[in-house]
Design goal:
Blueprint lengths: L28 H25 L3 E8 L5 H7 L9 E4 L6 H4 L5 H4 L8 E5 L4 H8 L5 H20 L2 E9 L2 H13 L10 H6 L2 H11 L9 E5 L3 H19 L17
Parallel strand pairs: 1-3, 1-4, 2-3, 4-5
Helix pairs in contact: 1-10, 5-6, 5-9
Keywords: Coiled coil, Kinase, Transferase
InterPro entries: P-loop_NTPase (IPR027417), Polyphosphate_phosphotransfera (IPR016898), PPK2-rel_1 (IPR022300), PPK2-related (IPR022488)
Pfam family, one: PPK2
């Protein structure tokens, strides 16, 4: 699969219409489900090397509209990792204390330390997207925040953290079906928030805000637009991108200061 097809190129205007939400990459569901266990095994082995090396870190950013599949991605992709080497943060409405600091204060505190995989299930981009759509910040403020984000991500990169940013791209029809499924299943009622319908009514405004946000794609911290109407393809594509990135990072376990062949266990 050509992973670069889904990567937002730095410095270029981005239109989400370039990517079909129901793209399947030429796979079918059965083939994808056959491949996924092998990909999960590769993820686990590469993460173990990253943890053992403890000289690099990987930060995975997940952004999506409501019902876009962030939790499903955590379950089916990030779930392949050893929990001891993963830190998952979910940034919602800032608390009183958080609002008393700059908007990146709470974010920096959860950046992964070396050897770890960090996952932002909603991220620092929430502080641009939601306020911009709801008119709480103006265009100048939102652009300034994006500049701060670029600098913040560059800082993390300089400190040894690779960053992957995934926008889970679903259609309004698929979102409607997923929200309806939550209403029809009593065990999923807790996942339904009536406020999601107010956000859904602002679909075009969020599209424009996301397209602006995707402009922060850089070589060191790229955005990928992930077609997410098909959950199985979402999992397949994200898994492959993470694997290729970890291979590029090439973490190496530390050398031991003894000869393993000389050890005798009685």
């Amino acid at each position: 699969m050509n992973l670069d097809m889904y990567r937002v190129q730095p410095g270029q205007p981005t239109s989400l219409s370039r990517w079909a939400t129901d793209d399947d990459g030429g796979y079918d569901k059965k083939a994808a489900r056959t491949l996924l266990p092998e990909l999960q095994d590769q993820l686990a082995r590469l993460q173990e090397r990253l943890y053992a090396e403890s000289k690099q870190a990987l930060l995975i950013v997940l952004q999506a509209r409501d019902a876009g599949g962030k939790d499903g991605t955590v379950k089916h992709v990030i779930g392949a990792f050893n929990p001891n080497g993963v830190d998952i943060a979910n940034f919602k409405v800032p608390s009183t204390e958080e609002r008393a600091h700059d908007f990146l204060w709470r974010i920096h505190a959860r950046a992964p330390h070396l050897g770890m995989v960090g996952v932002f299930n909603r991220s620092h981009y929430e502080d641009v997207l939601v306020p911009r759509v709801h008119g709480q910040i103006d265009e100048q403020t939102s652009e300034r925040r994006l500049q701060h984000i670029r600098a913040f991500e560059a800082l993390l990169g300089d400190a040894g953290t690779r960053i992957l940013k995934f926008y889970l791209h679903i259609s309004p029809e698929e979102q409607k079906a997923r929200l309806q499924a939550r209403l029809e299943d009593p065990e999923k009622h807790w996942k339904f928030n009536p406020g999601d319908l107010e956000e859904r009514a602002l679909w075009d405004d969020y599209t424009a805000a996301y397209e602006l946000t995707l402009s922060t794609s850089t070589e060191a911290a790229p955005w990928y637009v992930i077609p997410a109407d098909r959950k199985w393809f979402r999992n397949l594509l994200i898994s492959q991108i993470i694997i290729e990135t970890l291979k590029q990072m090439n973490p190496q376990p530390p050398r031991v200061d003894f000869d393993p062949l000389s050890v005798r266990i009685e």
